[in-house]
Amino acid sequence: MKSSRRDFLKIAGVSALGLSAGTLGFLGEGAQAADALPTAQDFAKPSNAKQWGMVIDTAKLDDATMKKCIDACHATHNVPKIEGKQEIKWLWTDDFHATFPTEFPTYLSDDLHHRKFLLLCNHCANPACVRVCPTKATFKNNEGLVIMDYHRCIGCRYCMAGCPYGARSFNFRDPEKFIANMNPLYPHRTRGVVEKCTFCVEKLAQGKLPLCVEASGGAMVFGDLEDPKSPVRQILKDKYAVRRNPAAGTEPSVFYIL
């Protein structure tokens, strides 16, 4: 009995980390087509880190691969498809100047000028969004992930103003009607709530990689920045990489190899 209760609490705890808003919808119409519900056994060997981080080798990503990454993320996490200024995005692309607004190369190569870059929450080591949130709806967990408790979000958007990377989106409207194929295994958010990338915390809890990393064909590498033997540290040891807007002092955990 004790073991069963512990297993239940383990699953419930993962759900609370970033999955705590909206309607769970386990009994929705999409349930039959969805993957099987994870069991306690799926959470038996979680991935752990002191500070999760990512390295993106931008030269290895083409438009088709980036779309595959975005589709995998948005479809699984029920990110609504809304056009225009009210767009909701966890993973998106932009050009060099929008990605690295503090970089002013004298002679930017044609390749970089025309290249698109994959953008997401940087899960900063020193996140401004956490400091400005008045309700502690945004917080850092003990693995360096910047997580949201959507139930505590009051929609003040201070976090959006504090984030120097535009990584957060606000639900001006009920997002449910803009989700074409609802994933019943992941809760959608509600009107008046901010949302963003979670580094797939629910996958990490099952010992898996983030969906975008899986879909990237090796162009994106994930691991513990505090572990010198981790894949991300091994790449950063060999190749020069930059971070977005380092002058902001937030210490982003996403690195870009140009």
Plain-language structure description:
This protein has helices spanning about 1-15, 65-75, 95-100, 110-115, 130, 160, 200-205, 210-215, 230-240; strands at about 50-55, 90-95, 115-120, 140, 145-150, 170, 195, 220-225, 255. The protein is of the alpha+beta class and about 260 residues long. The chain has a single domain, classed as Alpha-Beta Plaits (2-Layer Sandwich), CATH 3.30.70. Strands 8-1-9 form a 3-stranded mixed beta sheet. It has a two-stranded antiparallel sheet with strand order 2-3. It is globular, with a radius of gyration of 18 Å. Mean pLDDT is about 90; it is low at about 1-35.
The name of the CATH architecture is 2-Layer Sandwich
Protein structure class = alpha+beta
CATH class: Alpha Beta
How many separate domains make up the residues? Answer: 1
Principal-axis shape equals: globular
Roughly what is the average pLDDT, rounded to an integer? 88
Residue share in helices?
25-40%
**CATH fold node name:** Alpha-Beta Plaits
| Poorly predicted regions | 1-33
Number of helices, counting only DSSP H or I runs of 4 residues or more:
9
The H/E string reads HEHEHHEHEEHEEHHEHE
**Main sheet, how many strands, which sense, barrel?**
3 strands, mixed
CA radius of gyration: 18 Å
Features of the shown structure:
three-stranded mixed sheet; single chain; globular; Alpha-Beta Plaits; 258 residues; 9 helices
Outline the fold blueprint.
Layout lengths: L1 H15 L35 E6 L5 H14 L15 E3 L1 H4 L10 H5 L2 E3 L8 H5 L5 E3 L5 E3 L9 H5 L6 E2 L23 E2 L5 H4 L6 H5 L4 E5 L6 H8 L15 E4 L1
Parallel strand pairs: 1-9
Antiparallel strand pairs: 1-8, 2-3, 4-5, 6-7
